[in-house]
Amino acid sequence: MQTELLVDAPPATKAHSTSLHSTTKRTRTPAVATSEYLTFRLGAEEYAIDILRVQEIRGVISPTRIAQAAPIITGVVDLRGVIVPIVDLRLAFGLQAVNDAATVTIILNIAERVIGVTVDAVADVVSLDTASILPPPDFAAETTEGAVIGLASLGEGDQRRTLIVTDIQTLMAGPQLGLF
């Protein structure tokens, strides 16, 4: 926190030919960067990705399988003339695949490429300041190494939630996916 000493000089009048300066101590709080994140669930965990990467959210999608594609790529869909690969994030994080009525596909725009990711459910959009995102632990799986930005907690008491803040571009470029 920076402290700045400002001098306030009263206007000169005939009654106050000698001006005494009063000092006022003011405190400035540096601006904290805040970003919005889309939160979603995979199993029992809740993740957050930068909302600026999200193009749209779609319900259940039935992709067309592509021969010899990585197991976590469930196929491709034609989205308004653009062929979009669909990645099952449950499989990317080592969980069992689940496709039910709550399954959602998030269409992302990453490095001028459109990619879909399948998740269990979308929760909401939250604002997080950079100071509220704590660094991740020093262990990481090969799949997620470098993709976890940190952890953030929201709410109080029984309503407290921990979010795993993820760099989706790093995840998509990782060794298991190699999409970039």
State the gist of this model.
With 180 residues, the protein is mainly beta.
Write the layout of secondary structure elements.
Layout: E1 2-8, E2 22-28, E3 34-42, E4 45-50, E5 54-58, E6 73-79, E7 82-88, H1 89-92, E8 104-110, E9 113-119, E10 121-129, E11 148-154, E12 161-166, H2 168-173
Parallel strand pairs: 4-12, 7-9
Antiparallel strand pairs: 1-2, 3-4, 3-10, 5-8, 6-7, 8-9, 11-12
Description:
The structure is a single chain. The strands form three sheets. The chain has a five-stranded mixed β-sheet. A five-stranded mixed β-sheet has the order 5-8-9-7-6. It has a single domain, classed as Beta Barrel (OB fold (Dihydrolipoamide Acetyltransferase, E2P)), CATH 2.40.50.180. With 180 residues, it is mainly beta. It is built from two helices and twelve strands, in the order βββββββαβββββα. It is globular and about 45 Å long.
List descriptors.
single chain, 180 residues, mainly beta, OB fold (Dihydrolipoamide Acetyltransferase, E2P), five-stranded mixed sheet, 6% helix, globular, disordered N terminus
Decide which structural class fits the backbone: mainly beta
- The second-level CATH architecture is Beta Barrel
What share of the residues does DSSP label as strand, in percent? over 45%
Remind me, CATH topology?
A: OB fold (Dihydrolipoamide Acetyltransferase, E2P)
Query: If you average the pLDDT, what whole number results?
Result: 81
Order of helices and strands: EEEEEEEHEEEEEH
Oligomer: single chain
Q: What is the terminal separation in angstroms? A: 41 Å
Low-pLDDT residue intervals, each spanning 5 or more residues: 1-22
Q: What's the alpha carbon Rg, rounded to whole Å? A: 25 Å
Number of strands: 12
Q: Going by CATH, what is the homologous superfamily?
A: CheA-289, Domain 4
Q: How many DSSP H or I helices?
A: 2
Helical coverage, percent range: under 10%
Main β-sheet description: 5 strands, mixed
- As for the number of domains, it is 1
Placed side by side, the strands forming the largest sheet appear as 10-3-4-12-11
**What is the name of the CATH class?**
Mainly Beta
Identify the overall geometry: globular
